[in-house]
Amino acid sequence: MELINQHTKKIMEGCKERARAAGLRFEDETLEYIVTNRDLLELTPKVMIPNLYDYWVHDVEVLKEKGRYELYPGNPYETVINTRPAISFYNDNNPDWLNVMIFYHVIAHVDFFQNNLYFRHTWDDDFNGQALSDKRLITKFRSEKGRWVDYIIEFARGMDNLVGYYDVLSRANRGSAATRPKRLDYYFDVFLQAVKNIKIHEYIKEIERYNDCIRTHQDLGEQSFFADAIKKYPEFEAHFKKYLENGAKPKFDLMQFLMEHANFINKDENKWMQSVMQVVRKTSLFLQPQIRTKIMNEGWASYWHENLFLPDDRIKGHEVDFARVNAAVTSLPRVGLNPYALGMRLFYYIEEIADKGKYSLDFQRRSDVDEREKFDNKTGKGQEFIFKVRENFSDSMLINTFVDQDFVTKNKLFVAGKKLNPEKMVWKYYVKSRKAQDYRQMLQNSLYHPPYIAVDPEKNVDNKLYLVHHFEEKPLVKDFIFNTMMGIEYLWGGPVQLETSEVVPTTPAQGQDAFFGYPSPSPTEDQEPEVQWERVLYTMQDRKLLREKLA
């Protein structure tokens, strides 16, 4: 692995000038490395962060990737990581014309990293430098503690998807606490979530109601919002008053709570475990926004590499080569999801709709199909609008807001179903739905959605740690419960209980598969089985797991 040569660096700097002229914003300093396939195999398990701490799973992944490469040889064109300065890696056999296209793609990624608000907590730090310090720390502990370091890493990684990402992001984005409307913060951050435990769709409706009040009543919008809120929740004022008297309780995610309150970890001889857990938690927080913006990030980069590369004079003589490479990256599959293709088409669609002024109230009020089709105010603000989307949205928000019926119809998108052919014992794929709401739901189901599991201090009795899964109609993966709870039990130093929801087992009836316990696919129609849930309690004690149904 080595830095690119001066000839290639000159190409990159030329791409930066053109990108800035188009409106992209990013820091001047970037590092570009040439890598071989062997380098890529060793970097991939570390999420391409060269200085990330070593871990036994990384070695397993390297061996797996080597085997896969022997069967299906092929190198990625580029990889870029969000650090200061931004670091990117390039295949060692890319021609100059391909590097031009790739550099535009990478620059758009860097623009996204450094301007999307979901990355706000990563803007002020050089994560690669922090990772080097963390790696040295863990190496030091390994020389002193041996294999126990890997056990702690294993146990911490078992719950690193439960980190309080939104709490960290909230603190980074809101600025000074003195300028915040505390009543509003308490209503949305504490009262609705912790006191009332409302569902996500109800929470989103409250946010929409607040925004509508601000738009309608402007300076009196918040007053109007709370007038209706108090009618719905008359106990709110009493809760808020008590909150102010007692002070805001610090919010801990599970890993923080263990580091702060676990007697076992806080023994003098075990304090080193806190440092290892903090490394794992910090790494997870750094990677959280990338997981939540995959479609947007790749779509934004694909949009710009296409728009910047096509007018570039360095494309001459390689138009066909570009078309072939670009089609392979951004083509829409008939079945499955390509984030590059979907994200790019969404940005083109949003730009077109904003150019025509179709996000205006005037357009929304029109119901005639022909009028809506011909509507065009020629605002010229399409690109300005997509820059705002790039700054403020995540994948989930993008899909819920902009994947409408017009977008689905225009791109001939559909939800694919599959049926088992009992004669040939093969799956047959078919068009299940062309409705936007079904396609949106399919996309939402494919997104990263970690469970929300919190500590219930009031039920922590007799040195038992009581965890509550705030259920969102997505059950926990049973295969992971035992190992994860065993790790938490070790770190806590006592029994651990987990309250969650699971599907009520059903007795196979006529028309049901007696082995799998769900309705067999019908050749003529799709019937979603009715799902019933029950609350259950898992208890891990002395590395033995018990399950009981709650009343």
TrEMBL record:
Residues 9-444 form the SpoVR protein-like N-terminal domain. InterPro entries: Spore_V_R, SpoVR_N. It comes from the Bacteria. PANTHER family: STAGE V SPORULATION PROTEIN R. This is SpoVR family protein.
